[in-house]
Amino acid sequence: MNKRFTSVLALAVVLTAGAHRSEADPMTLKDACKDDFLIGAAINRTIATGAADNANRSQEQVEKDIALVKEQFNQISPENDLKWQLIQPREGADGYDFGPADAYVNFGLSNHMYIVGHTLVWHNQTPNWVFAGTNPPPEAINANAGDGLAGRPAGRGFGYGGPRASREELLQRMHDHIATVVGRYKGKVKVWDVVNEAVADNGTNILRNSLWLQIIGPDFIAKAFQYAHEADPDAILRYNDYGLEGASKRHKLITLIRSLQAQGVPVMAIGSQTHVNVSSPSFETEDQALTELATLGLPIHITELDVNGSQGGRRSTGADVANNAATTQGGLVDNANQRLANQYASLFRAFLKHRDSVKVVTLWGVNDGVSWRAGGRPLLFDANDQPKPAFDAVIKEATPQ
Ligand code: G3I
């Protein structure tokens, strides 16, 4: 064999191996996306701690889930354990439960992953004491009421109805929480979802009518970013929301971020959750959304990607767990696996087209078995951690042919 032919052959082998790897050593998501963006998944407590919950996941399944995360992803987000309700269920410096959050951060550190913190200020999964005035009667702490959100489960900050904290009290609690949590993981958690889902879904108001807004006023967002920046000046601070595929909510978000930028608020990245379905958005709609979001001049992170494959999901753009019964009703759409693959291919085509802006893509869960919307089979791996056709579709999009 002459030398030239040998080197051409060697090059061909390298190129082929780069594109497809082999049956024994198949292409992974993190390899396929390595020149484009980080690719990650939200992990739950069983994965972070390695301990089965004995309800949904056996020990054997948890170990397979962990192996899959290590094999496929280079970034993680915490599905629940860094939310206020879980990390600081009680008031004061003694009110923190750091165990599961520490396990999450340590999982990322020991596996050399890019670690996201989710989330500091949200209307959901925030305990009622946060919004309560000093020494309210116990029945007030547990009350739900009055702000149009009554009837939601107690304890999540949806509709606390008792005597309220003053603006100063709530700002102090917000400050202390952010300083403590961001400070604890300084230098380890690289990106924080500082404010989550503050934009209103409907109507003309830009901001959602949350207790944060009602008690503090619209500058609760600026204050949260300011406190987070003080606690870790090197962390990337993100504003995170859903439904940005739709023009009206996206335009509200752009107005909000521009106003924050004009005030010098340190918003450093836009999180677009991207809880979508098999019918929408189209490639053109997603392309348009990313084009408009990129005009803010900030990196875009796709923070909670999943694609609902249920019949009921075709009408939904919300991301509230309370809507799951409606959004997963009617069973899966026909040809669900193929339609899921087509939608994931279309979404990744758009992300890759915008690779100059899109820096992180996070799937909201590791597999269909642990997904918050399991009925919609929305992820790339099935409940047994086996890749679905959607996985192959993503690899194909991300791998130069
Ligand atoms: O912690 C309790 C546990 O003690 C109890 O035994 C169990 C019984 O149901 O409930 C546990 O709490 C659940 C919690 O997840 C932790 O598993 C809540 O009921 C459940 O409502 C909660 O759902 C989470 C949801 O946020 C809450 O809104 C989902 O797992 C999580 O995937 C979802 O994630 C949100 C993002 O944070 C923000 N964007 C939308 C996205 C989807 O809703």
Short description:
The chain has 401 residues and is of the alpha/beta class. It is 39% helix and 13% strand. It contains 15 helices and 9 strands.
Poorly predicted segments: 1-19, 145-157
Helix content: 25-40%
Give the N-terminus to C-terminus distance in angstroms: 27 Å
CATH superfamily label:
Glycosidases
Number of helices: 15
DSSP summary, beta strand count:
9
Strand order of the largest sheet: 1-2-3-4-5-6-8-9
In the CATH hierarchy, the third-tier topology is known as TIM Barrel
- Assign the structural class, choosing from mainly alpha, mainly beta, alpha/beta, alpha+beta, or little secondary structure: alpha/beta
Determine the strand fraction and express it as a percent band. 5-15%
Key phrases:
9 strands; binds ligand G3I; TIM Barrel; 401 residues; globular; alpha/beta; 15 helices
Furnish the topology, listing elements before pairings.
Blueprint: H1 3-20, H2 29-32, E1 38-43, H3 45-49, H4 59-72, E2 75-78, H5 84-87, H6 99-110, E3 114-121, H7 138-141, H8 167-184, E4 189-196, H9 211-216, H10 220-231, E5 236-241, H11 247-262, E6 269-272, E7 275-277, H12 283-294, E8 300-308, H13 324-327, H14 336-353, E9 358-363, H15 389-398
Parallel strand pairs: 1-2, 1-9, 2-3, 3-4, 4-5, 5-6, 6-8, 7-8, 8-9
Can you put this structure into words, describing what you see?
The structure is a single chain. The chain is α/β, with parallel strands linked by helices and 401 residues long. It has a single domain (3-398), classed as TIM Barrel (Alpha-Beta Barrel). 39% of the residues lie in helices and 13% in strands. It contains 15 helices and 9 strands. The protein has helices at 3-20, 29-32, 45-49, 59-72, 84-87, 99-110, 138-141, 167-184, 211-216, 220-231, 247-262, 283-294, 324-327, 336-353, 389-398; strands spanning 38-43, 75-78, 114-121, 189-196, 236-241, 269-272, 275-277, 300-308, 358-363. Strands 1-2-3-4-5-6-8-9 form an 8-stranded parallel barrel, surrounded by 5 helices. α11 (247-262) links the parallel β5 and β6. α8 (167-184) packs parallel to α10 (220-231). The model is unreliable at 1-19 and 145-157 (pLDDT under 50). Bound molecules: ligand G3I. Ligand G3I is lined by residues 79-80, 124-125, 196, 242, 273, 304, 319-321, 372.
